[in-house]
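Why show two proteins at once? Because comparison is the fastest way to build intuition. When a single record is shown, students tend to memorize it. When two are placed side by side, the eye starts asking what differs. So, the first record is below.
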Amino acid sequence: MIDDHALVREGLHQVLKGLDEDVSVLQAGTCEQAFALAEKHVDIDLVLLDYHLPDMTGLQALDVFGKNHPELPIVMLSGSANVQIMRQVLQSGASGFVTKSSLSDELLHAVRLVLNGDVYSPSELNSDFGALSFDGANTKPPLTQRQELVLRELLDGRSNREIGSSLNVSEETVKTHVTSILRYFDVQNRTQAVVAAARSGYRPTSAA
């Protein structure tokens, strides 16, 4: 987790024990420290990233993580419940957004959802949040940057093993993202997902 307040980090650590009493949590007070930890610990499952940090904004850090560790899901934390910020964060590739005023159960729900390969969209966004990568109106959050990378490989006809090799991630991670993509398009297999994406006019963003 990345937050410049030690007490906040410790509080979040206690909350995350709700996932598993033996959960391992790495802590960083700056983005620079977090990037170093991500390079050293390649088995990190998820990052909790504060929106306001001393050395760069959460959005800037999100961009760095997206380029260097595209397979790593990010959940943004913020003391603000500003809907515009929520939209911007999710559009920029975060897998979830949770306000610091939320109950512990909401954070745990969001983390579990994201670890399962899904996107957690705050209730404040309601149903007016449109996916940017589609031409028509869509009430679901957009695919994450990681899912877009996998979808791009699917559109090229690559297997899970080939995708894993191309993105430098495990086949298990690829399977998780493929499952999320199938759910997103409400289809049963990869071929149907590719067809559904094409029919919907899906175009991975240039930043993915």
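Second record. Ask yourself what differs from the first in the token line.
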Amino acid sequence: MADAHDPATLAFYDREAPVYAHRRHPERNARMVAFLARLQPGAGILELGCGGGQDASLMLAAGFDVTPTDGSPGLAAEAEKRLGRPVRLMRFEELDAVAAYDAVWASACLLHVPEDALAGVLGSIRRALKPGGLFFASFKSGDGGDRDSLGRYYNFPSRTTLEAAYAAAGPWSEIVIDEGEGGGYDGVARTWLFVVATA
């Protein structure tokens, strides 16, 4: 697969890792709670873009078998400190697992994948899931790729373009897309698209 990351965005996260990894997160993520409730106890979860490890720590505490990964060496190191366990340094295009995970959690990370590479990454994620596996991802909605005020690349998909990318990734038994309002590290409020897909 061609490169599915933006070098300038990865460089940003490496520079900002100590601050970004310790930003405040909600103590209870309602979407994560709902997602985990659909999994069997101890299910194997691949986390893409684990950042500072906040989500992984909650999933591990709930008894799930979590494999945390990130494409930024700086963030992976910060997550290892939080979790007390190895974090795999992996860019999206390096995912080559087949039918290995019960679920994939990709919160606010695939939104950095270049538009023309998104369907390929989604296809790799689908292949990494066991039959019936669940996949969560979130995106900032918009009308195409652009950079934010901090220089980070975002694919900013519309609902229609996101549906097309998932369709191109291969057949899913179910795809549910919800919308919600939220902020980000740049302090800008945006509409978010939350996707739960079933392999």
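One difference worth noting in the second protein: DSSP finds six helices and nine strands in the chain.
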